[in-house]
C-alpha cells in the first residue's frame, strides 16, 4: 500500500468514526469552531476531571479532512492533562504550517494525525485540518491560565 492510499484510507476511516462524533452527557466545556471559508462548523465537547481530559466528542458538520482531524485529535487528547493537550495542538498546527519538522518525536507525539501533514501542501484545506485543534486551544486558553 502506498502512502497516498494509506492517507485516503485513514481519512475515510476517521472521518466516519462515530465513537467521537456524538453528544457528551455532561461536558465541562463546549466550544463552537467555525471555518467561514468552507462552512465547516463543529461543536467540540470536553469533559474534564480536574486538569485531565476525561472524554471528548464533537457534533456538527464538516468535510472529511475536518472530521478526520477532529476525530484523530480526540483520540489523542483523551486521558491527557490540559498542558499536554495544549502542547499537542501547538505541534499539530506547527506541522500543518510547516513550522515543525516531521521527525520521530513528532510522529510519536501525534500518532495517526501525522498523515494529515500533506494537507500543508493544500492551502485551501489547512483551515479544515486545524479547525478542531484551534477550538481545543481556545477552550484551554479561556479556562486554564
UniProtKB/TrEMBL annotation:
CDD domains per the UniProt record, alphabetical: IscU_like
Residue stretches making up the NIF system FeS cluster assembly NifU N-terminal domain: 7-128
Entry-linked Pfam families: NifU_N
InterPro entries the record matches: NIF_FeS_clus_asmbl_NifU_N
NCBIfam families linked: SUF_scaf_2 (TIGR01994)
Protein's name in the database: SUF system NifU family Fe-S cluster assembly protein
Gene source species: Peptostreptococcus canis
